[in-house]
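Pipeline run #58 for the internal structure catalog. This entry was flagged by the ingest filter as a single-chain record with no existing model, so it goes straight to prediction. Upstream metadata was stripped on purpose; only the residue string is passed forward. Reviewer on rotation: M.T. Logging verbosity set to normal.
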Amino acid sequence: MKADKFYDKALENKDWILAKAGKEGLAGVYYSKGRNLYQFQKYFSDAVSNYEKAIELYPDLRIAVGHLVGAYMKMGEHEKVIETATRAIELSEKEKKYGHMYSYYYRRGESYCMLGEYEKAMADYEQALKLKKSYRIYISMAKCYAKMGDEDKARECYEKAIELLSESIEKEKQARKLVRYYVQRGECYLNLGIYEKALEDFQHALKVFPPGEYYKTYGKTDYYVEALKFIGITYAKMGDIARAKETLNEALKLAEEYELVLTADEIKAELEALAG
């Protein structure tokens, strides 16, 4: 990665950066390096380390704190998510920068939910919705209600997410957003047991980008592989185990080819569940 080498070269002159730009300037270099690494799943832990170094140098670097919230969530470090999201909210309020604050609330809510602190989770989700009516929040709420055993409220939240995603699909022109909307609406249908509509959305997603193209262009994930993964999961839910395994193995082969290590682990877990 050329950009990573650029940051490594810059960090060879840390003393010069400190003299010219102070701790905030050096923290910015670590943050930028972390963000570059974060685009590639195989360098995920290295990205987290650089975000942490940035914050150690300059604790008020809100953008690094905010990115670390999502990173800890992917790692399943829920106590750290709560601590870091709380800090991100404090910094957002201090700086009067509210654009991403909804995401800190709903991420913290997700972690509270995973830890079984449902009252705190729902309070955070409601606060997030006051800041932005996002389908992401409704999906997180639905999953939390399902975890609580409240299927009616889970369904209600999934239906609201589908409504918002359908509106976005209707008007969206950017392929990079459209493919995400199809996959996420498909997942909502999947969780509601509406399998034919789920498959339809996942098949739409396969047509937006060829395999690997999204990841090579934008990083973080590949929605072709994601769609294939969910198609396999849907077949399994429908009882077609042979087709599920075939599709999941196809998705796994692509995930490993593109070094999507986190996605590959998810697919392996699905295959292991089917084998068991």
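catalog note: The two ends are 40 Å apart (CA to CA).
catalog note: DSSP finds 15 helices and no strands in the chain.
status: ready for reviewer M.T.
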